[in-house]
Design goal:
It is a single chain. With 360 residues, the chain is mostly helical. Helix content is 78%, strand content 0%. The protein has two domains: 45 residues; 294 residues, Mitochondrial carrier domain (Mitochondrial carrier fold, Alpha/alpha barrel), CATH 1.50.40. Helix 5 runs antiparallel to helix 7. It is a multi-pass membrane protein. GO terms for molecular function: phosphate transmembrane transporter activity. It holds the Pfam family Mito_carr.
């Protein structure tokens, strides 16, 4: 009997061992089968740092965008200095400069020499490099961060709002740095005898008015001018470019560099004209408040109110508008074109919104 029990036990243990080995073998096979599937899932997931199939977007990308923005704004605003001089003179003294846009060039050149058309070139180039650095770099930063925060589908659905929010935030920061340079530029254009250059103008403004009064008297007008301008500029350009690509049945990733550049230039003209019209009243107000004696001798808000009351909204919105549309339309197209060129030169590709439901 003992032998029988021993035999039965041995048989049971042998069977249990076989069952355990079979179970382990099956588990091993399932685990082995799961590895390729897991690897496939990893391979199919977005690469680290990528958004909408683009990127990665890190510090290097944002610095590249800032550099491209500084270069494109400095070059385009500097090149448009003669147009800006004529536009500013028409705004500040329409009674004298009453022969139209082309006539204004002739009047200034005849009275002061052709060199007068380059008045304010240095503060323009310097100021707009700094402004472009923070504006274009900031827009790219805020676009990417908002897209990460909202998620790809939500960001695509709300891309126009993202353009507007990114542009407003970046422009506010940029204007803090731009305002002193703009104050010097307008003072030199309105009174070429005020100082011999940027440094002398800045020093005299501070000594006569203090830092706030000298450099930031036009801060509110510049915010009212630049923030709506930049919001319209980036939102309209983004929408216009999207429409152009859709009309051609293409997209940035499928176009050549030359094709993308043409889209940037075309959409930039549309955006520039729209932005110029929207921001022109504040631009007129900014030009006048930085002119010596304009609006009386009271505080900033008192002076702004006096100027607005004296000029009227229609005059602020239309005086010099054609010249500014020419200037801003050309300038904005140039900015987006140069921005794309510089980004390509430094090996970066600008972030574009794409529909996650239709990956390409």
């Amino acid at each position: 009997m003992v032998l029988g029990l021993s035999a039965a036990s041995t048989s049971y243990l042998s069977g249990f061992g076989a069952f355990s080995r079979a179970k382990e073998s099956a588990a091993t096979r399932r685990a082995d089968a799961a590895v390729p599937a897991k690897q496939l899932m990893v391979a199919a997931s977005p690469a680290e740092g990528e958004i909408m199939g683009q990127g990665p977007f890190g510090l290097t990308y944002f610095l590249q965008g800032a550099l491209a923005g500084g270069i494109c704004c400095s070059l385009t605003h500097g090149a448009m200095t003669p147009v800006d001089v004529v536009k500013t003179r028409i705004q500040l003294d329409p009674a004298t400069y009453n022969q139209g846009f082309i006539g204004g060039f002739r009047q200034i050149a005849a009275a002061e020499g052709a060199g007068a058309l380059l008045t304010g070139l240095m503060p323009t180039a310097q100021g707009y490099f700094i402004q472009g650095w923070f504006k274009f770099g900031g827009v790219e930063f805020f676009k990417v961060q908002l897209t990460k925060t909202l998620g790809e589908q939500s960001a695509w659905d709300n891309r126009n709002s993202i353009y507007l929010a990114a542009a407003a935030g970046a422009e506010f920061i940029a204007d803090i740095f731009l305002c002193p340079f703009e104050a010097c530029r307008i003072r030199l254009v309105s009174d070429p005898t005020y100082a011999s250059g940027m440094a002398g103008c800045a020093s005299r403004l501070v000594s006569e008015n203090g830092v706030i009064g000298g450099f930031y008297a036009g801060f509110l007008p510049i915010l009212f001018k630049q923030i709506p301008y930049t919001m319209a500029k980036f939102a309209v350009q983004g929408k216009a470019a999207e429409s152009i690509y859709a009309g051609m049945g293409s997209e940035p990733s499928k176009m050549s560099k030359g094709g993308n550049l043409c889209v940037s230039l075309g959409s930039g003209v549309i955006a520039g004209v729209a932005a110029a019209i929207i921001s022109h009243p504040a631009d007129s107000l900014l030009s006048k408040v930085n002119k010596a004696g304009a609006g009386g001798s009271g505080g900033l808000m008192s002076r702004l109110t006096n100027i607005a009351a004296e000029e009227g909204f229609v005059a602020l919105a239309t005086t010099g508008l054609f010249a500014r549309c020419v200037m801003i339309g050309t300038l904005t197209a140039g900015q987006f074109g140069v921005f794309d060129i510089v980004m390509g030169m430094v090996g970066a590709k600008k972030f574009h919104f794409t529909d996650p439901k239709n990956p390409h």
